[in-house]
Amino acid sequence: MAFHEKEVPANANAGQKLLAWVDSRFPLTATVKAHLTEYYAPKNFNFWYFFGALAIVVLALQIVTGIFLVMHYKPDAEKAFQSVEYIMREVPWGWLVRYMHSTGASMFFIVVYLHMFRGLIYGSYRKPRELVWIFGCAIFLCLMAEAFFGYLLPWGQMSYWGAQVIVNLFAAIPLIGPDLSLWIRGDYVVGDATLNRFFSFHVIAIPLVLVGLVAAHIVALHEVGSNNPDGVEIKETLDENGIPLDGIPFHPFYSVHDVMGLGVFLMIFAFIVFFAPEMGGYFLEANNFEPANPLQTPSHIAPVWYFTPFYSMLRATTSEFLIPMWIFAASIFWLASRGAPLKIKGLFLAILGVLAIAFYSFDAKFFGVLVMGGSVVIFFFLPWLDNSQVKSIRYRPAFHKYIYAVFVVCFVILGYLGIKPPSPIAEKISQVCTLFYFGFFLAMPYWSKLGEFKSVPKRVTFAAH
To answer: What radius of gyration, in Å, describes the C-alpha atoms of the chain?
Structure first.
């Protein structure tokens, strides 16, 4: 195909000529129109829709601060801790960059958790946004891996022993576990080889995947359009020009909207960085300000707060817990098989039989790893678990809201208990919360279609504010 230079008016200024020259070689204007000025978003967005844009800002912040930290950090078991201290004490403004990065990690998870919760209550995972949700869940998995690999790099006591515990969990996987944990460590113990490979994953490999997934997430979102608090598809009501009647251009309306949210976020972020960067030990633990000592185990080892809900589920999976887990799984399968063909019931019985044999054959540590991994992976299946007649929580039966509320409370309790030292009472509470956590998802095909649903309006409900 022949190349055609984009024509410009004779009286065009230098800027217009430059833009025409670029547009002839790169779809700059078309991209801006497709994703900003002519991308129509529902006009009834509320404050829950700040968090997607904030996640992109925090990702950029983490990349920029990470680049400056890498300039002075040394991925060497003998020098890593000292290099972090050098950044904090000797590098001009190094303490600020380090605290921005450590605070940014926690704020990233806060923003992502709220972003996912918004998708949960408004049904943003439902058709036609299944792929958008899957990309988002993949981002969450990558973010967890990125945080885990970065957690070791300061080479403090909690970094070292936390990594030791998590890496050793992989050894519980039958057949491949020992070799897998050895490959992750790069040695027979967590040491210099582990630090080097964690550094390469944290700085190069996972950020590349993360940025690619974020781009795919946004492209997929703009292909099908954004959801809204009413769960109404605005593309179904168009004017004579094909523009959604209930949509407004993302720029300038929502770009200004997001800038306002960003301003509030940055004030909170700055307050934490300057006045409470450790956040009482939740963002930065006191033990991590001591150099790693393989010969001295801390009295209580716990991951950083954003991993603790899943860590609680791991600790809750004991040998005694396997029996109620099997009963719970049998109950869920019985609910799911009601009215199902005989073949499906036979399949469920076979699955329960395999689970019973597995519970008898493998130790609780292996099932703890499965529970911890499954608690994240199960989010991928959410679009096919929800059988509700409507998307948004606004038009669902009232008892659905209580189920979501209990789910959030259980998640917070699991997170809190994961920080605290283990105790018999905490173990029982964690087990109950774990059962409800999985019950929320596994029983969703049943409870999500129960109750009296409200009628969803044809157009979005909106009041100017």
So the answer is: 25
Q: Taking Cα atoms as reference points, which of 193, 35, 55, 27 lies closest to residue 111? A: 55
Distance of alpha carbon 410 from alpha carbon 305, whole angstroms: 15
Residue 382: other Cβ atoms inside 10 A: 21
DSSP one-letter code for 236: G
Residue 1 has pLDDT above 60, yes or no: no
* Bridge partner residues of 40 (DSSP): 249
Residue 60 CA to residue 109 CA, distance in Å, equals: 14
Q: Is 266 exposed, middle or buried (0-12, 13-18, 19+ CB in 10 A)?
A: middle
Q: What pLDDT score was predicted for residue 338? A: 65
Q: Which whole-number Å values give the CA distances from 7 to 10, 27, 34, 174, in the listed order? A: 9, 15, 21, 66
Q: Say whether 291 sits in a helix, a strand or coil.
A: strand
Q: How far apart are CA 98 and CA 163, in angstroms?
A: 20
Give the rounded percent of residues in the chain with a pLDDT score beyond 70. Answer: 94
pLDDT the model gives residue 23? 85
Please tell me the distance from the alpha carbon of residue 105 to that of residue 109, in angstroms, as a whole number. 7
- Kind plus residue range of the DSSP H or E element containing 346: helix 342-361
Strand-strand pairing, 40-42 and 247-249: antiparallel
DSSP codes, 435-465: HHHHHHHHTHHHHTT-SPPPPPPSS------
Between 337 and 275, name the one with better pLDDT: 275
Burial 102-129 (b: 16+ CB within 10 A, else e): bbbbbbbbbbbbbbbbbbbbbbbbbeeb
Mean pLDDT, range 344-371, rounded to an integer = 74
In this predicted model, what pLDDT tens digit does every residue of 155-208 receive, in sequence order? 999 999 988 888 888 888 877 888 989 988 888 888 899 999 999 999 999 999
Instruction: Please determine, for residue 359, whether its predicted confidence score (pLDDT) is greater than 70.
Output: no
- Cα 260 to the chain's mean position, in Å? 24
Report d(CA 313, CA 462) in Å as an integer.
Answer: 41
The Cα 423–Cα 315 span in angstroms is: 10
- Extract the tokens encoding 110: 């806060």
Q: Where are the alpha helices (DSSP H) in 123-176?
A: 130-152, 157-169
Tell me the two tokens of residue 137: 């869940």
CB distance 367 to 322 below 8 Å = yes
Does pLDDT of 53 surpass 70? yes
Neighbour count for residue 351 (Cβ, 10 Å): 13
Residue with more model confidence, 8 or 263: 263
Whether residue 226 is predicted with pLDDT greater than 80 in this model: the reply is yes
- Closest listed residue to residue 173, CA positions, set 377, 373, 370, 366: 366
- Average pLDDT of 123-144? 95
